[in-house]
Amino acid sequence: MSSSTPLAQYAASLRSSGTGASLALERIFSMFTIPVWIFLKMTELQRHEELLETGSLCQFDESMGRALFVSHQWLGTHHSDPSFEQLLVLQKALMDLISGACRVSLPAVVELWFGRLRLPTARDFNGQGIFLWYDYFCVPQCERNSQARQMAISSIPSYISQSFFFVILIPAVRHEDGHVLSFESWAERGWCRLESMARSLAREDGFMITIKVASNPTLTTDLGGLGKAPGKGIFSIEEDRSKCGPVLANLMWSKLHNLLFQEDFHNYRFLLNLQGHCFKGLQTDHFESLVPNFAAEIDPSTDPHGFIVAKFLHENGFKSVQERDTAGWSPICYAVLRDDPVLIEALVRNKADVNDSNRRAKNEAQLPKGLPLLSLAGTYHSNQAMKALLLAKANVNAKDSFGGNALTASIGMGNAEAVNTLCNANINPRVKMVPGTGPFKIACGFANVPTMQAFMTRLPANVNLRFSLHFGLIFYANIDTVSLLLKASADINEQLEVPMKKTGWWMLLKLLSLRHTVSPSALTYLAYHHSGATPLMLSIITGKFDCASLLLAAGARVDLKNRRGKTAADIARETRAPISLTRAPADETDSVEFDQCDPVVSCAF
Fold it and tell me: Which of 91, 209, 240, 414 is the most exposed place for a label (fewest CB within 10 A)?
């Protein structure tokens, strides 16, 4: 970028003034933590004030060791874990991780997306002291300490920035209102969304780990960027929604300034223009621009579109509409993220290309090279921008480098509104993405019920239920999407076959299967056993034990074998899954039992 742009000049001024240290996340309440050895001895939940009085808490500093931030859903409105159910699972998992009795595993779908990522070992857990941050322990709980509690809440992004481990604790235990907690219910909580977004913005190293059952902690990755807007989440206490806004604003201000300080202009522009997404549902205004001294020679009363474009270029450090930065993005690419149809119209009137695309992949956000603007809009729910692009005659069937179009992008990110908009624009629903996947299978894989329903309603002729359960379970299916497919008459006992004519998938699975003999992993195991696998088998291989319970309850057979002669019970034994499939001799009913240490509901059939 030329140093003559106001954005570059402002970034240079930050560096020359030595203000980097002042850009750290605000912390107005000490980061209290509990040493892991104290936590592992606990048998009942104690609130912050009690632990502080007994000297069980310490103020964390990274020189002491590693902090482990626990993100979880409360089991009641006024108490996080009344029966110590969640924390018992965490205790067992941590004991096994520290001793080396179990390891964090890499889910098959994560390896498929990102390759073989480094996994934490026992040394990562026992090489240095571990200090837990858990809200009920570390945030004041008594009403008389409400001011201190709010100060601690405001400091949560700072705590996350100091935490090497970020643990999503989601055992299948029952909330006081009767529903069973899951990853999906965690992801709908406003505070959990804020914590997840803070992790994405505040820390780049360390590990994100999901614990559903104690014996099977898994590595978690952030697919696609910043996650769901906290303000659109669920809050048990509605007034907490307004408290979330200033916390997010502080986080955003710090991150944007740090990106400028590092002269990372692409990610600065990316985040600056995605702020509207992040702040949805909150009354807090996002930052329109950090760059001062905008002065245009254009009169907004005579040339309103030119004025809008000039202001946008100033804010983003561009000199012209046709310019492209080192990441391969043009101004209109960033404008799509902002989801402002007036801005899109202004750029188009000033010769921006409605059929533009990024020229380089953005791997950390899983955005392929050549992603058309309509696909970018669908990915980030920029639905007003999508309509403006279509109005400007953007090519609705433009494809990215993987062969996908805006429909596949919208489906992949759960954008049901965009699916309807694109259907109205007569998009091609028969497109195939590498290695040969159509839109409906993508909908099953990314497991968003409204998106699946929109596709099934608008494009019924393109709904093929064959292997839909399998595809979903290999990727991100949950009990809601499995239920939807079963109600649509998907075959619960269908056995998977990938013929050679499905060249892409056949070759991929063949190569992974061969790799299993020399370098096994969860993904290669799945490939090795895929032929003839039933949905029940795949639910066990991929660790979706709640889906396994649902399938059994719906009549899934346990006697079927895959092409390697393995039953679901064989696979459960080989993978050491915390689930046992047995045949009850008395009445010939099937039962599924889970490890007693893992609070997954047992079912008898």
Answer: 240
In this structure, what are the phi and psi dihedrals at residue 443, rounded to the nearest 5 degrees?
A: -60, -40
What is the model's pLDDT at position 223? 58
Structural tokens at position 263? 């002269």
Q: How far apart are CA 474 and CA 489, in angstroms?
A: 19
Q: What is the CATH number of domain 294-464?
A: 1.25.40.20
Q: Do domains 294-464 and 503-604 have the same CATH topology?
A: yes
Concatenated DSSP letters of 493-511:
T------TTSHHHHHHHHH
The pLDDT value recorded for residue 3 is 59
Q: Is 47 exposed, middle or buried (0-12, 13-18, 19+ CB in 10 A)?
A: middle
Residue-wise pLDDT tens digits, 544-569: 999 999 999 999 999 999 999 999 99
The model's confidence at residue 574, banded by pLDDT at 50, 70 and 90, is very high
| Domain assignments of the chain as residue spans, ordered by start | 22-257, 294-464, 503-604
Residues in the chain, overall count? 605
Nearest to 465 by CA among 446, 480, 484, 447: 484
Bridge partners of residue 356, in order along the sequence: none
Q: Residue 26 in contact with residue 247, Cβ under 8 Å?
A: no
pLDDT confidence tier of residue 19, bands split at 50, 70 and 90: low
> Which of 3.40.50.150, 3.40.50.720, 1.25.40.20, 1.10.10.10 is the CATH number of 503-604?
1.25.40.20
CB 68 within 8 A of CB 167: yes
Which residues make Cβ contacts (< 8 Å) with residue 11, sequence separation at least 6? Answer: 260, 261, 263, 265
d(C-alpha 313, C-alpha 4), whole Å? 13
pLDDT, residue 77, reads 80
For residue 216, give the 3-state DSSP assignment: coil
Sheet with 590-594: strands ordered across = 579-583, 590-594, 603-604
